Amino acid sequence: MIAGQHSASERALILAPFGRDAAVAAAVLREAGLMAEICPDLASVQRECERGAGVALIVEEILQEDDYSGLARWVDAQPSWSDFPIIVLAQRGGGLERNPAAGRYSRALGNISFLERPFHPTTLVSHVQTALRGRRRQYEARERLENLRAAITRQQQDQSHLRLLINELNHRVKNTLATVQSIVAQTLRAAGAPLGTRDTLTARIVALSKAHDVLTNEQWSGADLDEIVGQALQPFRLGLGEARIRTKGPKVRLEPKTAIAIALALHELATNAVKYGALSTSEGWIDFTWNLSRGGGPRELTATWREVDGPRVNPPTRAGFGTRLIERGLAADLNGEVRIAYPIDGVVCTIRARLDSEDDRPSAVEPKRSRPAAAASEEPMREAAPPT
Ligand SMILES: Nc1ncnc2c1ncn2[C@@H]1O[C@H](COP(=O)(O)OP(=O)(O)O)[C@@H](O)[C@H]1O
Ligand SMILES: [Mg+2]
């Protein structure tokens, strides 16, 4: 706030164009150290109010005879913090209780008080000081409001900056995965690694990348389990048909870490099913269902992968990378446990994950569900056919 504005906002405007009333009132106020400014008419009062004023003193005769609708409009249009005080210098015997027009004035001009003439100088000074005190409170409220608005604007700018950073990071993670995929493929080719190994690795990186896509679309606020499941199993369904992989469960929101862990687990399970299990024959199929337990504590997710009508299972003689990834690495990320059993009629994998309660989870950025995949989708990774 500049100095001129500040002093203008403390002024007492005086409209008393009869005799020496205005000059006397101004002299009394100045004597008391207050700023007083004499106005010739209502239009000039309104003009000065627009520049900034602390209080206005108006003789009642003016309100009786002149059109004060302009001032009333200014009063009406005040910002929410402002309630401009007006002291009506009433005629003798015309105090608030006895003045029938009092109600009309206050309805039109708002914060009105009456001071009956003739008044003692100290009465005038105390009335004006009281009005100015109230006005200063209003200025304080204005300042607090402005600070609040500035803080909100700053916060919004910070948020959009953060969103930009996240988008940039998503983009880079995606590109890095694509680069890793290409380095791995070329290195393995140069080393003469079998084609199957290359495909297995590529498929794993693609599975990871797909889970990232789902999370990127949700601004990494989390993901819905059914979307993660759909994304992870889609390549297998495409190759074998929808009916071979049946999934069912309630809507569950997952935090990013859990979403990625489950996506990778499903990829390994489906790959094994194609290699050794129910998806290796034409009759077998997968039943993947999940449930949520809602006790008093954290929510717990139980998901079961069951292979049905597949070939007879031989208990494995060794644990490969897939089994190790699922049972050890992912169990830690799931904040729970993963068990794979090999009954003779089909593999059963049980996943248990403790989910954070939604309220506990901090989220830097609001999810934007309707937004299409951000920069991440610019360079889609080549999809590897699931190894068969
Ligand atoms: N769905 C399944 N049905 C039957 N046997 C399976 C299934 N999944 C895994 N196995 C057995 O478990 C072993 C370990 O699997 P895994 O750890 O994924 O290693 P890999 O896939 O490299 O063989 C497999 O070699 C296989 O004998
Ligand atoms: Mg495997």
Are any ligands bound, and if so which? adenosine-5'-diphosphate, magnesium ion
Shape: rod-shaped
Please give the largest β-sheet. Answer: 5 strands, parallel
Report the portion of residues in β strands: 15-25%
Order of helices and strands: HEHEHEHHEHEHHEHEEHEEHEE
CATH topology of the largest domain: Heat Shock Protein 90
Write down the CATH class of the largest domain: Alpha Beta
Note poorly predicted spans: 1-5, 358-388
How many helices?
11
Structural class of the helices, strands and pairings?
alpha/beta
Overall radius of gyration: 39 Å
Tally the beta strands: 12
Termini separation: 74 Å
Structural domain tally: 2
Give the name of the CATH architecture of the largest domain: 2-Layer Sandwich
Structural features, described:
It contains 11 helices and 12 strands. Helix 7 packs antiparallel against helix 8, helix 9 runs parallel beside helix 10 and helix 10 packs antiparallel against helix 11. The protein has 2 domains: 117 residues, Rossmann fold (3-Layer(aba) Sandwich); 220 residues, Histidine kinase-like ATPase, C-terminal domain (Heat Shock Protein 90), CATH 3.30.565. The N terminus and C terminus are likely disordered. The chain starts with a helix and ends in a 33-residue tail after the last strand. It is 49% helix and 17% strand. The longest helix has 70 residues. The strands form 3 sheets. The chain has a 5-stranded parallel β-sheet, with helices on both faces. It is of the alpha/beta class and 388 residues long. Magnesium ion binds next to helix 10. The site of adenosine-5'-diphosphate (ADP) has 14 residues, from helix 10 and helix 11.
